[in-house]
Design a protein that fits this description.
Layout lengths: L14 H11 L9 H17 L6 H18 L4 H6 L8 H28 L23 H15 L14 H15 L5 E2 H6 L4 H16 L3 E4 L8 E4 L3 H4 L4 H9 L2
Antiparallel strand pairs: 1-3, 2-3
């Protein structure tokens, strides 16, 4: 006879990871989540975790309560006036969808960085490369995007203890922040760096910081900038790449990025 516990219970970093996994495995449109089905599967996972004495933490319980709350709101009849106008802003799932999309972007970025780290660990440099490098060249310390992610995480922790001013205005986009960084480079001059943590500190909302961070990742990917650090534990800076002007010479790459973050 098969054991009643003959199943694999995957571990997740948080409730959003679990929800994303449930949604992707069933190829569900993340913007049109069947909340009753997902809630049922989420609660089933929690029941199995309890059977195996796995401590999921308070955030999993909170998400379960959130799903049940959303499910109960969706059972209520909608305002006929809103249905006639085609207004979807009253969808109780929207806030959850926004959180899932934001979490997925960070998760994909983390996976990309992990792949980059694995590639770098398996690449051997030629010891004789020094003979081809001029003594005047100063490449600075080796720094990866992992250092940038760590610094960004520390910045988010620091801003929790300061007042954040949420201003009602148009949403800041990743492309907006790419243009903002381009303007920062134009202000400091052609050979001068832009110290990224100083720019982060100027942002007044968490959303703006996230958009700025994603903009940096996009500019690195497009080879518009490189991440540098002159001294050990020094400030992380962005330097113009040789393709900087070429990247910003056309609006077409910007339009493509804008579509990716809709």
């Amino acid at each position: 006879m098969s054991s009643p516990l003959n199943f694999h219970l995957a571990q997740y970093d948080g409730p959003l990871d679990l929800l994303l996994d449930l949604i992707r495995k069933q190829q569900i449109d993340i913007k049109d989540i069947p909340i009753a089905t997902i809630t049922s599967q989420y609660l089933e996972y929690m029941d199995k975790a309890r059977e195996m004495d796995i401590d999921l933490g308070a955030e999993f319980v909170y998400m379960a309560a959130t799903l049940i709350h959303i499910k109960s709101k969706m059972l209520l009849p909608r305002d006929p006036a809103l249905e006639e106008e085609g207004d979807s802003s009253d969808d109780p799932r929207q806030e959850l969808v926004d959180r899932l999309l934001e979490h997925e972007r960070f998760k994909n970025a983390a996976e990309m960085l992990q792949q980059k780290r694995m590639i770098e660990e398996n690449v051997w440099s030629n010891p004789q490369i020094k003979s081809f490098v001029s003594e005047d060249d100063d490449p600075g310390l080796a720094i990866t995007l992992f250092d940038l992610v760590k610094a960004f995480g520390e910045m988010l922790e620091r801003v929790k203890n300061r007042p954040v001013y949420e201003v009602e205005s148009a949403d800041v986009t990743v492309v907006d922040m790419m243009r903002y960084l381009r303007d920062q480079f134009l202000q400091v001059g052609p050979d001068q760096p832009v110290f990224i943590m100083r720019v982060f500190e100027l942002q007044r909302t968490r959303r703006a910081m996230i958009a700025l961070f994603l903009a940096v990742l996009e500019m690195v990917r497009m080879q518009a900038v490189v991440v540098t650090q002159k001294d050990l534990f020094g400030e992380i800076a962005l330097q113009r790449h040789g393709s900087f002007d070429q990247v910003f010479s056309s609006e077409q790459p910007m339009a493509a990025i804008d579509k990716d973050y809709i």
